[in-house]
């Protein structure tokens, strides 16, 4: 009887250990960062945690201006409560943002915080603005990401010439956005 009791206790213990291992595996899958780097020029980020890492990495860049079209990062970070922390760190660092956003309820609320969040936002018609994704140009870094469910992914390209090309496209968009904003 004693051996049977000990055997049952061992089975229960093994069952608890197995469940704990499975729980840990699930947590690891959720938090594992899927980041692939190619020659210090291109980084691919897959999954929500990886894209959060990509966004946070922008704080480590030595540049003082960020050019942004699209999602604003807000929608990616607000879910996890990290948005205010990110904005605070960016403002403390002194990195200004020029941002082109969709003229929506969220876009208007975003723009109202411009002064406090060291940003200048222009609102354009929703149909002219990228949906569920964002483009940022920071110095010689190009950051593209989408944060929509299972398709959450991002790309960072570090290339001065490509960044200059996209900055010129941004400048043209910025100039045009002023007339779009006035007309909306």
Briefly, what is this?
This protein has 184 residues and is of the alpha+beta class. The protein has helices at 2-31, 48-57, 74-77, 83-93, 105-112, 160-183; strands at 34-38, 42-46, 65-70, 96-102, 119-124, 133-138, 141-146, 153-158. Strand 4 (96-102), helix 5 (105-112) and strand 5 form a beta-alpha-beta unit.
Task: Report on this structure.
The protein has 184 residues and is of the alpha+beta class. 47% of the residues lie in helices and 26% in strands. It contains 6 helices and 8 strands, in the order αββαβααβαββββα. The protein has helices spanning 2-31, 48-57, 74-77, 83-93, 105-112, 160-183, and strands at 34-38, 42-46, 65-70, 96-102, 119-124, 133-138, 141-146, 153-158. It has an 8-stranded mixed β-sheet, with helices on both faces. Strand 7 (141-146) and strand 8 (153-158) form a beta hairpin. The radius of gyration is 22 Å and the shape is elongated. The model has no long low-confidence stretch (mean pLDDT 86).
Question: How many DSSP-defined strands?
Answer: 8
Query: Which strand order does the major sheet show?
Result: 1-2-8-7-6-3-4-5
Structural class from helices and strands? alpha+beta
User: What is the 3D shape?
Assistant: elongated
Radius of gyration (CA) equals 22 Å
Estimate the strand proportion: 25-35%
* Topology as a string of helices (H) and strands (E): HEEHEHHEHEEEEH
Which descriptors apply to this entry?
alpha+beta, eight-stranded mixed sheet, single chain, 184 residues
């Amino acid at each position: 009887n004693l051996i049977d009791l000990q055997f049952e206790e061992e089975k229960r213990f093994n069952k608890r250990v197995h469940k704990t291992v499975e729980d840990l595996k699930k947590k690891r899958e959720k938090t594992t960062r899927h980041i692939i780097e190619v020659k210090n020029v291109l980084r691919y980020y897959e999954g929500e945690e990886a894209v959060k890492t990509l966004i946070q990495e922008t704080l480590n860049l030595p540049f003082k201006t960020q050019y942004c079209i699209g999602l604003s990062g807000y929608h990616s970070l607000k879910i996890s409560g990290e948005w205010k922390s990110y904005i605070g760190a960016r403002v403390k660092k002194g990195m200004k943002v020029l941002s082109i956003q969709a003229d929506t309820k969220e876009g208007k609320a975003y723009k109202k915080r411009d002064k406090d969040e060291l940003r200048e936002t222009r609102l354009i018609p929703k149909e002219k603005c990228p949906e569920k994704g964002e483009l940022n140009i920071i110095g010689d870094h190009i950051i593209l990401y989408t944060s929509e469910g299972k398709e959450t992914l991002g790309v960072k390209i570090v290339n001065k010439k490509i960044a200059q090309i996209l900055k010129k496209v941004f400048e043209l968009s910025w100039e045009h956005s002023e007339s779009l904003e006035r007309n909306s």
